[in-house]
Please model this.
Amino acid sequence: MSETLWAAVLGMFAATYAVRASFIVFGQRLRFPPPVVEALGHVPVAVLTAIVVPEAIAPGGQLDLSPANPYLVGTLVAGLVAWKSGRTLLAVLVSFAVFGALRWPF
Model:
């Protein structure tokens, strides 16, 4: 590998290590303001959305918002079941069943 690539890898390692170590070193003394704590509560939902939505609306890199798109329909079903029931496992199982039925019809 080139020297530039090694420098980038080592730089990212140092940055990641510093951020993670800071919570161990300063963990008890570090206090975030309430708005920051509230905002951090939304991070998991935002990250999951950023991962799932692009694949659901554009499987294979092509935009497909039709009802024939099993990824989109499965994602929408998962969201609806999770919202109505509040049970994550049920949402996953039902959306897998819907996705499978649309993807591999009997």
Observations:
- Residues 42-106 form one domain.
- The radius of gyration is 21 Å.
